[in-house]
């Protein structure tokens, strides 16, 4: 972040990456440098994002997001390729350890340099199994279950299958986007709906339609 002159812009595909940036900027010396000059220097360059949540966090640190309506990494990659020239300065991509290779691959194929920097790790919450068990024992088996990430599928699905038993076949599974839907399908779970874009409104509409079809 201290060397905007080395990069052509920024790419953010998750709110967690912005949380890491905000932690970084909490240090007094860095915060001062960011406010005085670095923020303005980065603002001359594009800041590409996926989704409204990430876009709003980008605005909180004083930058102007682009591409928030793309909705997923594939569409964002296309958007970036339509705006960036091959062999220009690298785009800085703060990301998680579990990032997918879609965006880096598409940009690499188009000759647009991208420098990935791992800034957070996705791990299972220590109380996850206990929380799920508690919910199922108190509330029963839900009519629908929504997943927001492939890692959510990885960490939660086995517990949900065990808690639901044969009734799992009657549960409607929803996904926030195509990547999460693919993870569910790969695990043998039929996906009843995938949000058209990663917004509460689109997700709600999809779940409502899936449940209404079965009169749930």
TrEMBL record:
The GO cellular component terms are: cytosol
- Alphabetically list the UniProt keywords: Heme biosynthesis, Lyase, Porphyrin biosynthesis
Q: Does the keyword Lyase apply?
A: yes
- Annotated GO biological process: heme B biosynthetic process; protoporphyrinogen IX biosynthetic process; uroporphyrinogen III biosynthetic process
GO molecular function per UniProt:
uroporphyrinogen-III synthase activity
Q: Which SUPFAM superfamilies has this protein been placed in? A: HemD-like
Its function? Catalyzes cyclization of the linear tetrapyrrole, hydroxymethylbilane, to the macrocyclic uroporphyrinogen III, the branch point for the various sub-pathways leading to the wide diversity of porphyrins. Porphyrins act as cofactors for a multitude of enzymes that perform a variety of processes within the cell such as methionine synthesis (vitamin B12) or oxygen transport (heme).
Record protein name field? Uroporphyrinogen-III synthase
Native source species: Pachyramphus minor
Q: What gene is this protein translated from?
A: Uros
């Amino acid at each position: 972040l201290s060397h905007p002159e080395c990069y052509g812009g920024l790419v953010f595909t998750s709110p967690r990456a912005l949380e890491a940036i905000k932690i970084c900027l909490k240090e007094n010396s860095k915060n001062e440098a960011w406010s005085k000059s670095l923020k303005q220097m980065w603002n001359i360059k594009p800041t590409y994002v996926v989704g409204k949540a990430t876009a709003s966090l980008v605005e909180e640190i004083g930058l102007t997001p682009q591409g928030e309506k793309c909705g997923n990494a594939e569409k964002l990659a296309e958007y970036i390729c339509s705006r960036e020239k091959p062999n220009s300065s690298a785009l800085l991509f703060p990301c998680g350890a579990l990032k997918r290779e879609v965006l880096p691959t598409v940009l690499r194929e188009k000759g647009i340099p991208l420098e990935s920097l791992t800034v957070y790790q996705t791990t299972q919450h220590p109380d996850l199994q206990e929380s799920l068990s508690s919910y199922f024992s108190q509330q029963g088996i839900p009519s629908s279950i929504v997943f927001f990430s492939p890692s959510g599928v990885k960490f939660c699905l086995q517990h949900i299958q065990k808690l639901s038993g044969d009734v799992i076949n009657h549960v409607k599974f929803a996904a926030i986007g195509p990547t999460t839907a693919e993870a569910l399908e790969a695990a043998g779970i039929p996906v009843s709906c995938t949000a058209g874009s990663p917004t509460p409104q689109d997700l709600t509409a999809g779940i409502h339609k899936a449940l209404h079809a079965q009169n749930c």
